[in-house]
Amino acid sequence: MDVMFGRVKKKDAASRTVTLIGKPGCHLCDDARAVIEAVCAETGASWEEKDITRDEELHRAYWEQIPVVLIDGEQHTFWRVDAGRLRRELGA
């Protein structure tokens, strides 16, 4: 968020990045991916996916919580992704 004249201004959804942290063969990750793809297509936000089996640091941090969803690098949720909550967080 940007601060402008003492007021907090929300970022535009198109300037936000959603990150899905998961692993292959994870059915909850598949469900999360479908929600993220749909919400990002609707809002204009970009998204990326990171595989914990290819990143030791991510594996240590998140292996018990996958799928984990970050927005602009900050944890938003884990296990289940609620489309309405994700939309609201993106400012849509």
From TrEMBL:
**Which ranges does the record mark as transmembrane?**
none
Pfam families, from UniProt? Answer: Glrx-like
Signal peptide per UniProt: none
SUPFAM superfamilies membership: Thioredoxin-like (SSF52833)
Q: Which InterPro entries match?
A: Glutaredoxin-like (IPR008554), Glutaredoxin-like_YDR286C (IPR052565), Thioredoxin-like_sf (IPR036249)
Record-given protein name: Glutaredoxin
Q: What organism is this sequence from?
A: Streptomyces vietnamensis
